[in-house]
Amino acid sequence: MSNTENMISRLKEIVGKGHIVHDSAKLKAFAVDGKVPKAVVYPGSIDEVSQVVAYANAQRLAIITRGNGTKMRMGGIPKKADIVLCTRRLNRITDRDCENLTLSVESGITLNEVQRDLGGRGYFLPLDPPFTDKATLGGIVAANSSGPMRLLYGTARDLITGIKAVFPNGDIVVSGGKTAKNVSGYDMVKLLIGSLGTLGIICEITFTLLPLPEKKWTLLIPFPSMDEAYGFVYDLIGSQLLPASLNLVNAAAANKIKHPMPSQKGNYLVAIGLEGIAEAVDRQVSDMGERGRNHGALDVVNVSSEQHEDFWTAIRDFAQELAKDSPNLVSLKSNVLISKNKELLRSYENIADKLGVECAFVNQCGNGIIYSHLLVKGDLDSKVDSLVELIGQFTSETSHYEGNLGVESSPPSIKERVNVWGISRSDSGIMQRIKGQVDPAGILNPGRFIGGM
Amino acid sequence: MERGNMVEELAQIVGMENVLASEMDLMLYGYDASLYKGRPDCIVLPGSTEDVSKIVKFAHREGIPIIARGSGTNLSGGTIPARGGIVIHFSKMNKILEIDTENQRAVVEPGVFTLVFKNELARYGYVYQPDPASEKVSTFGGNFGENSGGPHCLKYGVTTNHILGAEVVLDDGEVIWVGGKAADNPGYDLTGVLVGSEGTLGIATKLILRIMPKPEAVKTMLAVYNTLEDASNTVSAIIADGIIPATLEMIDKLTIKAVEESVHAGYPLDAEAVLLIELDGLTDGMARLADRIMEICTKNNVREVRAAKTEAERAQLWAGRKGAFGAIARLRPNYLVCDGTVPRTKLPEVLNKVMEVGKKYDLPIANVFHAGDGNLHPLILFDERNEEELKKVHAAGTEILKLCADAGGTISGEHGIGAEKMQEMFFVFTPRDMDAMRRVKKAFDPAGIYNPGKVIPEAEA
């Protein structure tokens, strides 16, 4: 038997014949940046994950973990792709303790499934990352994916109290648990969040829950100019008001958001999400509307409770929607000092204008995150040079404001020519040392993470 | 290396006046707020990151242990020189470097006292949320090392949720930055790993803190109970009702007695327990939330609920809570505080069992703790001069941690493992879990110079 045949037969023993794909035609759908795996396995238990990983480690086979595949365009081009390990059969809720405000789930369940389960009981998991329907919790956590409401609720690192993961040697490692506070041993939970499947395969996660807010409301406030829009934004940021989300989008983005927009669009639209107790939401609606008008708003449009969810889903899934028209969409994520949102966005607009690239910008103002979606139309090849040039210039601008720029999603022809994780920092050496200790054979997701890890 | 040579080498880096090695110094830096004692070889007081880097380089070359220390308020023996070595004391690196309200960040040196910084911040109308009880003297370096908590962590999270980056000296003296003022820097969350690593992975020399505008309104209430059970049932009921106050603290009868004798916070002496409940946020709707809490208290047989009407009244109620550990020292010469944490819903059940342990060993137990987080702090009172009692205390402490672990909880919520709870690590972790942690230790500090003999028990041969 060939090596591949040996591998397939061993993997079948572990996960069962019905839970492996090795037909070459079918495997193509699981290619990552063009690298086609030799097999896709669907383990049905954490023990099976452990066996697959231990086997791969012994054979030096590369494993790429996948949930529903919404993050497969993230990161660098893989160095190697032997096995795709799909978590979709690990989809159970293992402990629902709403009165303790915790929920433990296996990593292959989607966030949407969890929200449906919790919603009926009056609770929710306060994460709102992209790919509302499809993203699995394992993928969300591994990629440290977040959404507009992080301003109020925080990100995965604020909301996870425990993780069970399979480490590269096959060990099932438990960190944390279901207590709100825990300083027993090192915080391995933090290490795994955002590690993009390079240190361990996340199999079970315990989240902090919150009771559903009494009231939700959204304000859409268009402004004629950038100065006026940001004048309003910084007024809010410095106030004692507590918006759940505070986003600013440019006209190119506002035109493409799949939701009814104010008739007077202006050039910049500020969208504010409010969630909490009814009196506090109502007071903020009127207070913010007034502040908006004082800063020159063209209009203050109320999006009521019923439409609130739809609007923010449209924001969360914006890149997905854009990709329908622009299959070669390039999405960039910049992180920057919150006081420099305006300066940076202005520079980005100038650069994009000069290079003739249409950009839809979404700025999470309260967090200093700017998503730049480069709307690439028609033939990609002829535009690669200018897109690479734009990414370089954006990166250099971002670094002036203690920030960084990463490529969230792009065709391989661009990835080959840029550093998708941005500029290397002084902590990259210690990251390599951690990876070297935890995964000495380099079998987990090789090449896709920062520094080629 | 001989002490004389060590002192000489260190004096070349920081000057003779910043190296301490007298017999009294070695005794003073040999203990902290835990029951443990050790003995360093010498103490050094660096004035800059560069000093720290040079000290660490020297220690690395010579294989000398390094223990970073602020005020020594940690409760688990984290700053005890278990194997001798150099104590780096950060009292001279105590500057607030930057308060950057525009970016909601501040940068401080590790020797800054928590409360000094918070008072300075208050002048800008901003707050830093974590509030360890020792905040008057606890330093940011210590908060970073221990991942300190405090009452307001119920709503706002612990230190790790408020430290966004740090300048760190690695084991070989290399200086790096982890995290930063901006969110979401790419790569592993090294800040998250370093916070709470108890000085065993790296030493922070600058810290980036998250600050936020002061809440518009605060409402502080004291709920008085005739039984401990009614008080703990109230805690579980408030959380289960979907209300997350800023704080939800419990103080029991024995603690009330001690507190009233020293701080005079105005807690009723004949109560079995009081709850200190605080709401913060926007003014609108707060009165209704307070009413809802009042209703829950009433359902659980509260005797009386008092609301602080002025800032002075609020400060008085809090003085009782903040001064509790100190006040307890009036009752017996020593106490052991157990930091076991349980899922909140298990609180009434576990608290009962804790009191039974006290009865079993015939030791008084006082309770003052972060009830809303399920973070117990039974203080077992004793006299360390009585050897038999000392033995009983350790046995009782271990038993309490075991019952927390068995209730689905953990052995430390905010005080750390240190030298104290290494054996109890086996209550919550498998050898495989600890092997994974050892790999992290090896990546950061292969030679093991940073705070040896702490946190992770050695692997069995």
Summarize the entry for a quick read.
The complex is a heterodimer of chains A (about 450) and B (about 450). Chain A is an alpha+beta fold and about 450 residues long.
Describe, in plain words, how this protein is organized in 3D.
The complex is a heterodimer of chains A (453) and B (461). Chain A is α+β, with helices and mostly antiparallel strands and 453 residues long. Chain A is built from 17 helices and 19 strands. Chain A folds into four domains: 19-86, Uridine Diphospho-n-acetylenolpyruvylglucosamine Reductase, domain 2 (2-Layer Sandwich); 93-211, 2-Layer Sandwich (Uridine Diphospho-n-acetylenolpyruvylglucosamine Reductase, domain 3); 215-315, 2-Layer Sandwich (Alpha-Beta Plaits), CATH 3.30.70.2190; 318-415, 2-Layer Sandwich (Alpha-Beta Plaits). Chain A has an eight-stranded antiparallel sheet. In chain A, strands 5-6-10-8-9 form a five-stranded antiparallel sheet. In chain A, strands 1-2-4-3 form a four-stranded mixed sheet. In chain A, helix 1 runs antiparallel to helix 3 (46-59), helix 9 runs antiparallel to helix 11 (278-294) and helix 14 packs antiparallel against helix 15 (384-399). Chain A is globular. The model of chain A has no long low-confidence stretch (mean pLDDT 97). Chain B is an alpha+beta fold and 461 residues long. Chain B has four domains: 3-89, Uridine Diphospho-n-acetylenolpyruvylglucosamine Reductase, domain 2 (2-Layer Sandwich); 96-213, Uridine Diphospho-n-acetylenolpyruvylglucosamine Reductase, domain 3 (2-Layer Sandwich); 217-326, Alpha-Beta Plaits, CATH 3.30.70.2190; 333-439, 2-Layer Sandwich (Alpha-Beta Plaits). Chain B contains 16 helices and 18 strands. In chain B, helix 1 (3-14) runs antiparallel to helix 3 and helix 8 (228-240) packs antiparallel against helix 13 (347-361). The longest helix of chain B is centred in the last third of the chain and has 20 residues, at 387-406. Chain B starts with a helix and ends in a 17-residue tail after the last helix. The mean pLDDT of chain B is 96. Classes of the chains: A alpha+beta (453), B alpha+beta (461).
